[in-house]
Structures are given as structure tokens and as C-alpha cells.
Specification:
Elements (H helix, E strand, L loop, with lengths): L6 H13 L3 H15 L1 H10 L2 H9 L8 H5 L2 H8 L8 H6 L1 H16 L5 H12 L2 H11 L3 H14 L13 H11 L1 H11 L29 H10 L4 H5 L15
């Protein structure tokens, strides 16, 4: 069926199911479309449904591999949908348990990025997601859960450049994601760092920064808290107009770490 006349009907059906809260049925609709028309049909549906619908659907699976949409969502569609994750957070949840929200966001992003062994897809997902203001903030939220480890990774990247292996003193799950991001989009990596550490204007400054092991000690560097970043991301939820006119990624503020 080369004219793809089936796509609008599937897109409408999936959108209605997701908005009604029937995520399982929406996933079944994706599965049936894949069986009948191939995986590319699912990819095209995911590229046409509203990003807020994609966000609702993917968030419902926590980035799990059991979701066909997780495996097939186009990088650009996922990047746009990422902005709307924050729209479901209440003030009470942000105030009372920001770490839990951040962990849920990590599960979502980590699940999407590492749902495939395809390195090219991983890089494309990370590049598109971090090319937006809200994407940089989302990654900063994840990094805020392990700021000391992120400082160490930043230093390792600057010293080793493209030869970084991911071997650090920490086994925190955020470390592999941070390294993958830096390799996929240097500008996106820098922007996430600046979101977390707003005083830094050059990632080289991170080499000399220190972070205390004492959680009660004031950090030696200005750092946005997880809670502050969660509110910041929610304020960045875009309008339909801002999505359609998304600017190109900014020129890198970094050091050419992989050049």
C-alpha cells in the first residue's frame, strides 16, 4: 500500500486511545500496524501524532523495552515529546519528592536511548534531544542526581577526548549516559552542564572544580538543585507555534573535545 492512505486513520486511532488512557490498546494498535504494513508504518505514525501524545504514551512505559513505540520512535519526534513530560508534574510532587521525579525521568531517557544496540540510533536520539533548550534541562536534571560524578566525567572528557572509555571512580548509571551524550552532541553536553552549573561558561573550568562528599556542606560551585531544574523544565513546555519554528542548534560553547 504505497500511497500510505492508512496512516491518518492509524494516527487518529492511536491518539484517541492514548488520550483516553488506553496505552495497552494503543501499543496493540502499533503492533497490528507493524504486522500489516511493517515497522516503518509505526515510525511514520509516531512522526505525525502530536508530541504531547507521544510523551504520554512513552512515559506510560517508563522507557521499557516492552513498548514497540520505545524501539521505533524517531529521534526528532522523541526530542519534541520530551518537553511535555514535565506537563504532568504537580507542584506537590516537585516540592515533596523531586528525586523520585528525576529518577522516573532517568528511567524514561535511559530506556529510550539504550533500548537498541544500534549506536547510530543512540547518537541520533541524544543529538536531537539535547539540541533543544528543554532537552538540555532534562539532561541537567539527570546530572543533578550525581553532580560529583558529572564533574569527574567532564574532567575525563577534557583530558582524554575521544579516547574516553567510561571508566570512572563511580558506577553510577548516569555516567554511561553522560559519556554517550558528550560523544553524540558536544554542544548539547555543554548546554546540559551550563544548566546544572550556571556559573561555568567553559567546560574546561570543570577540571579544577571540587565537590565535597559531605551532603551538608555547601557546594564550592554554583549548582541548580533538582527541584529548581524540574520547575525550569516545566516552564519550557512549548506551544505548538514554538515547536513548528524550533531554531537550529546553537553554536557550540565547548572546547572541541572530539575534534
Amino acid at each position: 500500500m504505497s500511497d500510505k492512505t492508512y496512516l491518518p486513520a492509524i494516527s487518529k486511532h492511536v491518539t484517541e486511545l492514548v488520550l483516553a488512557g488506553s496505552l495497552g490498546h494503543a501499543e496493540q494498535a502499533f503492533s497490528e500496524a507493524a504486522e500489516q504494513y511493517g515497522d516503518l508504518a509505526v515510525v511514520e505514525v509516531l512522526s505525525t501524532i502530536p508530541p504531547q501524545v507521544t510523551a504520554l504514551h512513552l512515559a506510560g512505559f517508563d522507557g521499557g523495552k516492552m513498548s514497540l513505540a520505545t524501539l521505533l520512535v524517531p529521534p526528532k519526534a522523541w526530542a519534541d515529546s520530551l518537553a511535555f513530560i514535565a506537563a504532568t508534574w504537580s507542584d506537590d510532587n516537585i516540592e515533596d519528592d523531586p528525586e523520585r521525579i528525576a529518577e522516573s525521568l532517568f528511567a524514561h531517557i535511559h530506556g529510550i536511548v539504550f533500548s537498541s544496540e544500534d549506536q547510530e540510533r543512540r547518537r541520533a536520539l541524544l543529538f536531537e534531544a539535547s539540541a533543544t533548550d528543554w532537552g538540555a534541562t532534562a539532561f541537567a536534571i539527570l546530572f543533578s542526581m550525581a553532580p560529583k560524578e558529572i564533574l569527574e566525567v567532564a574532567g575525563e572528557i577534557l583530558v582524554k577526548g575521544p579516547y574516553i572509555t567510561g571508566q570512572t571512580s563511580s558506577d553510577n548509571d548516569v555516567v554511561p549516559l553522560a559519556i554517550e551524550l558528550a560523544q553524540a552532541n558536544e554542544d548539547g553536553w555543554d548546554r546540559a552542564l551550563f544548566e546544572l552549573f550556571p556559573d561555568f561558561r567553559h567546560s574546561g573550568d570543570l577540571v579544577d572544580a571540587e565537590f565535597s562528599d559531605d551532603p551538608d556542606e555547601e557546594p564550592g560551585v554554583l549548582q541548580r538543585s533538582t527541584k529548581e531544574l524540574l520547575y525550569r523544565l516545566r516552564k519550557q513546555v512549548p506551544t505548538a507555534r514554538s515547536l513548528s519554528s524550533r531554531p537550529a542548534a546553537r553554536r557550540s560553547l565547548g572546547t572541541g573535545i572530539f575534534s
